[in-house]
Specification:
This protein is of the alpha/beta class. The protein folds into two domains: 55 residues; 180 residues, Response regulator (Rossmann fold), CATH 3.40.50. It has seven helices and 13 strands. The strands form three sheets. It has a six-stranded mixed beta sheet with strand order 8-7-9-10-11-12, sandwiched between helices. A five-stranded antiparallel beta sheet has the order 4-3-2-1-5, with no helix packed on it. The chain has a two-stranded antiparallel ribbon with strand order 6-13. Helix 3 packs parallel to helix 4. The longest helix has 14 residues. The protein is globular and about 60 Å long.
Length: 259
């Protein structure tokens, strides 16, 4: 049967390594969106296979995120750091918001086009006064355009950099406002230089849609006087230090007593 919009598929030429949803079909070309990976792609129909139940179970198992038993409630009470999550993709944003809710973190999510984020972020920071801000969506490095060092060879890295700089105009301290920026294949080095605490992607690879949320959640649920274990934190993400990197910082959670 022909592949149609809404089908869940894998690509033969990539050894069926990623699940995609078919977003549109034009002629013999299918336009795809990663189910878990922040990735848009297009493919000829004859390179696609409808994902079987076994394929989906296998890949979903591969995509499972390491869970932490973050809090020992005992006699104390906890005030995790507040998160502002700005995302160019509504579906990925919703998954991240569900992840925060699962861990009892107060998070505000806003879906907006990547080009809008640097324009609107200052007003959002002043309105919500978050402890952690995530700037993400979709990105890509276009090898055919030129060198990795040139931010003009990326889909949205320049927009992310502008947004990070706006964050640092609002709050210079990396300890008072933790900034997590980037998406698939983003220019990691330039995002860090712009002022991000954490960014993607050191090896210019795709990242899991929850990777920024995993880092934000760990920082939000780590005590304010406690330094994070940077290497262990990065290892919680799907592709580790190849997909995400950053600087050592302290947690942002207040702990009180009694409950």
């Amino acid at each position: 049967m022909p592949i149609k919009k809404g089908d869940i598929v894998t690509r033969k030429s990539y050894n069926h390594d990623t699940l995609f949803k078919v977003m549109n079909v034009k002629g013999d070309t299918c336009y795809l969106k990663g189910i878990d990976v922040r990735l848009y792609a297009d493919s000829k129909m004859d390179d696609l296979t409808i994902a079987t139940k076994e394929d989906q179970e296998r890949l979903e198992e591969d995509e499972e995120i390491e869970e932490d038993d973050f809090l020992d409630r005992s006699e104390f009470f906890y005030l995790p750091g507040k998160i502002l999550h700005l995302d160019g993709d509504a579906e990925y944003l919703q998954r991240c918001l569900e992840y925060y809710k699962k861990h009892n973190i107060f998070a505000i999510g806003k879906k907006m086009n990547e080009v809008e984020i640097p324009i609107k972020i200052r007003d959002l920071l002043e309105e919500y006064k978050p402890d952690i801000v995530i700037i993400t969506g979709h990105d890509a490095y276009y090898k055919k355009k030129g060198k990795q060092e040139d931010i003009h060879n990326y889909k949205n890295t320049e927009n992310f950099i502008k947004a990070v700089k706006e964050c640092r105009r609002y709050e210079k301290s990396h300890e008072k406002l933790v900034v997590i920026a980037g998406a698939c294949q983003s220019n990691y080095e330039e995002l860090i230089k712009a002022g991000a605490n954490f960014a993607s992607s050191p090896k210019r690879i795709n990242i899991h849609c929850l990777d920024p949320a995993i880092i934000a959640t760990s920082i939000s649920l780590t005590e304010r006087n406690k330094e994070i274990d940077l290497i262990s934190l990065l290892e919680k993400t799907k592709y580790g230090k190849d997909g995400m990197g950053g600087i050592i910082c302290n947690g942002l959670m207040y702990v009180g007593y009694p409950r």
